[in-house]
Design brief:
This protein is an alpha+beta fold. It is about 25% helix and about 30% strand. The protein has nine helices and 18 strands. Bound molecules: adenosine-5'-diphosphate and magnesium ion. Its EC number is 2.7.1.91.
């Protein structure tokens, strides 16, 4: 299989989608003061599109003619890129459209993909303007690489594409509950974590997965709209899958990139396109102190080294989660999803992203 790295053409024209509400509300200002001068220096032409509401960007990339742009950049948080990925996959010509190189320029409160790409490039940890400068520099250089996507289906028939994560329980609840602290930027997650620790909950359900090591073939690029590794919800998972014996969890989290935030290295082993879903689950019974130790270690990605008996990690190609309740929320790439049975599989190298 050809790994499709590439370089943007010169001259180059970029469509910049910007959410003025993302993060601390400074995205437009950051574009003018930081991004625009760098693009000018590198002779990269741009068209700026400022979103007016949720799904505005999704509708644009779903129906618009994108042929005049060499790349679509998103200056916002992960939420707006999630809209773009799903909008592209909803097009009749999705097969070609999803190959348009994408670019993440961190301007939100959750910039996990930008932090991951910064890490893959070998850079030290960076926040805010420094992270944005690094990512804008990647755009100016114009090198792109393939990136895996995960297709997720729900029992009620929803179909979503995810580039970052799927979660239920503790970590997802932090993400959702801390939305109201958006003004704090990245610090919203610290405040949210402390708040959620106070009211620690147990989440009951059945988790099943297909480990990378027992799956015979990689999840082939372009197999979508088929999800060849999955079977319908009314059938049990295939025999060679693993069903987790425990059914009480604090958190279940599937992540496909290294970082969940600028200072949150959840899957240090992850790569942009490794054909893997890095599945973590934390079983009920862990003490609050144990949980705090794990979260502090996640800043540097050393949590697996703590050998906490409640924390499990396995790289998988597919998973199914069947919650025993139908209330509350799950998250996909940090965005809320009503709680219901969900299953997903990785699609190797389905899209492309500007990287270092
Ligand atoms: P943050 O990282 O701060 O959460 P995101 O870019 O992830 O920023 O955006 C958060 C949400 O805002 C997304 O669900 C997106 O759909 C929505 N959104 C996009 N444009 C706008 C807008 N102009 N006004 C309000 N919400 C928007
Ligand atoms: Mg967000």
């Amino acid at each position: 299989r050809g790994v499709t790295w590439g370089l943007l053409p010169r001259p180059c024209h970029v469509l910049v989608l910007l959410n003025p509400q993302s993060g601390t509300g400074c995205a437009l200002q950051l574009f003018r003061s930081l991004v625009e001068p760098m693009l000018a220096e590198a002779d990269v032409a741009f068209t700026l599109f400022v979103t007016e509401r949720p799904n505005h960007a999704r509708e644009l990339v779903q129906a618009g003619d994108l042929s005049q742009w060499d790349t679509v950049a998103v200056l916002a948080g992960d939420g707006l890129l999630y809209e773009v990925v799903n909008g592209l996959m909803e097009r009749p010509d999705w097969q070609a459209a999803i190959k348009k190189p994408l670019c993440t320029l961190p301007g939100g409160s959750g910039n996990a993909l930008a932090a991951s790409i910064n890490h893959y490039a070998g850079n030290t940890r960076a926040f805010k303007e420094e992270l944005l400068t690094n990512c804008t520099y990647f755009l100016c250089k114009g090198l792109y690489a393939p990136m895996d996507l995960v297709s997720l289906s729900t029992a009620s028939g929803k179909h979503l594409f995810s580039f970052l994560s799927f979660g239920w329980g503790f970590i997802s609840d932090v993400d959702i509950a801390s939305e109201k602290y958006r003004q704090l930027g990245n610090a919203r997650f610290t405040v949210g974590t402390i708040q959620q620790l106070a009211g620690l909950k147990v989440y009951k359900g059945r988790l099943s997965y297909l480990p990378v090591e027992t799956s015979s073939s990689p999840a082939h690029e372009g197999s979508w709209p088929e999800d060849p590794l999955l079977v319908p919800f009314d059938q049990p998972v295939p025999k060679h899958w693993t069903v987790v014996p425990e059914e009480e969890f604090i958190s279940i989290f599937a992540i496909y990139q290294s970082h969940l935030g600028a200072d949150f290295t959840m899957a240090p082993m992850a790569k942009l396109h490794d054909g893997s879903i890095h599945l973590f689950y934390l079983k009920a019974g862990v003490s609050r102190l144990g949980l705090i130790k794990l979260f502090l270690a996640m800043e540097k990605g050393t949590h697996l080294g703590l050998n906490c008996p409640h924390l499990h990690y396995v790289p998988v190609r597919a998973f199914r989660l069947e919650p025993f309740v139908s209330t509350g929320l799950m998250t996909v790439d940090g965005e809320p999803l009503a709680c219901e049975p969900v299953q997903g599989q990785v699609h190797d190298q389905l899209c492309r992203i500007i990287s270092g």
